[in-house]
Amino acid sequence: MRIAISTGGGDAPGLNAVIRAAVLSAINRGWDVLGIKRGYAGLLGEDEVVPLTRESVRGIAHLGGTILRTTNRGNPFHYPILQKDGTYEEIDRSGELIERARQLGIDAIISIGGDGSLAIAQKLVEKGMRIVCVPKTIDNDVSGTITTFGFDTAVNTAMEAIDKLHTTAESHDRVIVMEVMGRHAGFIALHAGVAGTADVILIPEIPYDIQRVAEKIRARDKAGRHFSIVVVAEGAIPLGGAESRLGASLPGQAKRVGGLAEKIASEIQEITGKETRSLILGHLQRGGPPTGYDRLLATRFGGAAVRAIAAEEWGKMVALQSPHIVTIPIAEALKETKRVELSHDLVATARATAISFGD
Could you read off the pLDDT of 324-335 as tens digits, one per residue? Predict the structure, then answer.
């Protein structure tokens, strides 16, 4: 048996732990393992396909990022090709990818990625490739799994930032608005905001009214608390409004959202008259070593993916359905984006402890 491993989409703490566990589990079965560089670019002649050995994965479990590198622009069904006039044309290179995998003697692929990578894997499975997926996203928005590796690390990074912001905000009687990742789901903002005792949390699932946010800040002022911390998911939207967009994305990339913190800070300062500052935590959430929880979950996922290949569970995704790791159809995970349930006890607890959601 010869398998290959691919990491696609945004990086997440724990990717290397998945790779290590999968490689060692496969080698201990007597299998060969290859690593596809930058998503599927290695199979399309844009990068390398390299052997993965015990030596390749020694000492990488605690490292952030991915030794295989990654990309969010490598969809083989819509591959951007630069034309002579400077424009890009998208072409279908999936047949080329499948043929190259056949030439390399690859029997199965472990695809590690989020919803974009899962969608690509599903289409390749439909064309006859043997693929098992591992869910990866710091946003925690993949359905069918309680959580994904990288999420816990991102929450801890955001929480530590909130802790630091508290001291400077209180020292200067300021409002500070911090933006975290979460285009369609507010899990990072919610978990980090509650853990870090933020005063306002704005998430995509609950459209906000800036006047209600201002009311919360004024109420704290009257109570003698002259500073406030506002945590904003990048995909949060105002009542009757739309998501905040950044500049143009590169060919093959999804439209970028963000820049919301600065807009909200400006509105808060105008309405309340309080000095308000903003920051975007950005890619700090993706970086650094994974927490113990994420290392363990990633390792479990890597081992489970190899067992799924041994059982010929093609078109399946490994998932945490506590306390066990199970497999579910990729198509089931793709049915809908997982979002914060408004009836969840964490939302109820946040409201009970006087955290405002701007509604």
Answer: 999 999 999 999
